[in-house]
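User: Quick sanity check before I run a bigger batch. Here is a single chain. Can you write out its predicted 3D structure?
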Amino acid sequence: MFPKVSVAAAVFALPLTAATGQADLHVRFIEGAPKDRFEITNQSACAISGSTLTLDLAPSLGALIFDVTDSGAGVEVFQPFEIVAGRDALAAVPSILDGQNTVDLPISTLASGASIAFTIDVDDTLGAREITVTGSEISGATVKLFSSDGPQMARFGSDAKAQVIGLSC
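Assistant: Done. Predicted structure follows.
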């Protein structure tokens, strides 16, 4: 049997659900030339504070890596790691080594509706299209948010998006 909910409670709950969108934290990978881009957007109703967001490319279908130097594990074109939006939301800017497949972003405070974005070169280590990464190649990569709520994880789909759902305020 379903619990009874008053009409007023249902009406007040509806706008909050609609305002938060599909997820609380949305991460998107955008293949680009010469730079690839990751965008992290807080779609929750409250700020995310004192957390670490970890992007892990190791479980991706393309066994993806970051290519940040002209020598090393990457293929042909490389691009250094560069924060292009939301620098003030980070406690520190991480450094990434060539061939690395994870990055930890220490979030001091990411306001509701705010974004962090960075550019970098991502290479496929398995396929024939090493310098171009498609959505299906990033599929399986993970996003983990470590916060006071404990760790929460999401996987990238073939649409090159991952959504961490259920953050509490």
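The CA atoms of residues 26 and 163 lie 5 Å apart.

User: Great, the batch can go ahead then.
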